[in-house]
Amino acid sequence: MSFEAFHRAAISRKSRRSGLRRVAIAVLTTAVATVGIATTALAEPYLLGPEDKLKIRVYDWRASSSEVHEWAALTGEFVVGASGNVSLPLIGEVPAAGKSTGDLSVLIGEKLQASIGLSNRPDASVEVSTYRPFYILGMVTTPGQYPYKPGLTVLQAVSTAGGVLRVSDFGLLSFQRESLVNRGDLRTLAVERLGLLAREARLDAELQGSDTITFPKDLMSQADTPQVAQMMKEEQLLFEARKQALRSQEDAINQTKKLLGSEIESLKAKSQSLQRQLELAKEELDNVNGLVSKGLAVASRKLALDQNVSQFESNRLDIDLLILRAQQDISKAERDVVDLHNKRRNDILTEISDVRGKISVNAEKTTTTQGLVYNAEVQAPQAVVSQMGNLNSKLTFAIIRRVGDKTQTIEANEADPVYPGDVVRVERLGAAPNGQEIVPHSSASAQP
């Protein structure tokens, strides 16, 4: 290759490297500019806090390959935890609360450099993708928690919560409707309680083995009421039906015992008859044995008599076994009666425990519903009148903001900024609640 060709090739390679370097610098400049735009969206640098969701990118320039290298493990969305730290791969916990995105970018680069042992500090880009929420309460239509948006003002926060609460929003008619519903629930609970008391009385009578049910005074005093009379009648019918069912089961078992007893008597009579036949057969066998010994009878006759005696003895043993089995069946039937009563008693005790538990729950629900009725008919309307006060009075705004380890209540105007984590309180003219210190309005624009 000639010197001129070599020189032109060298210049071409140098130009390409310069072009790549310019592209890399442009990418870095764009990324830094993006961070700058994000951090200057507010009038002053936004300070991070718990629940902020961050979009992080980390990269560095690799001179050896003339390219920008992105750290994939550190690229993505991360949330600032309740401790104020953000947990990152390769680095660990990085303090973020109270820092701007620019400060956190530098800190991430420094920690990565120290952790990996890099010669140069990598560059990091940090943006807030989702801000922590703000809260609003007081004289607004729908108080609660709402997502924060940069540049939010007090008036915009009130608008987000549905605007200022109006007289119609208190729903004085809804209190009447709520009262009617709760009073209906009270009547339902009262009927349920009477039904449970009737059931408890029936179960107590069954447990004691009584012939009749003794209903409590709460029921007897209303016995003329059709609904209560029907409850008592149904429990009485159920009481009689269950008692009859128990009696029928006992009668069936007793009938079985009676049949088994008759069977045993028959078997015993048969056993006595076999015993007499056996004795006669043995007597005849003794006579035949004497004749055989004298040569007056053949041995075959003796063999037949031996077989008859053995058969009688076997039959008597079979009858004795049948008698024993019948006696065992009688014992089992007696145990069945005991088990029947024990099971019935256990079932009754379980039902009583369940009924008494339901009575306790019913009492708790009744107390709660009575409180709701009182609230709907007395307390809530009084609170509405008290809170509304003079409808022509001016609205006041306050921002409850945490600054460091302290919480401040700051007087605010409609145009004052609201920051993530702030609590906006909207009220009619009046004193601050709970004795909180009111910070002059000039502090409302100061970010925590």
UniProtKB/TrEMBL annotation:
Q: Which InterPro entries match?
A: HH_AprE-like, Poly_export, Poly_export_N, Soluble_ligand-bd
Where would I find the AprE-like long alpha-helical hairpin domain in this sequence?
184-369
Q: Where is the Soluble ligand binding domain?
A: 134-165
UniProtKB keywords: Coiled coil, Signal
Gene Ontology molecular function: polysaccharide transmembrane transporter activity
**One Pfam family it belongs to:** HH_AprE
Could you name the domain of life of the organism this protein comes from?
Answer: Bacteria
Positions in coiled-coil regions = 257-291
Domain Polysaccharide export protein N-terminal residues, every copy? 43-128
Q: What is this protein called?
A: Exopolysaccharide biosynthesis protein
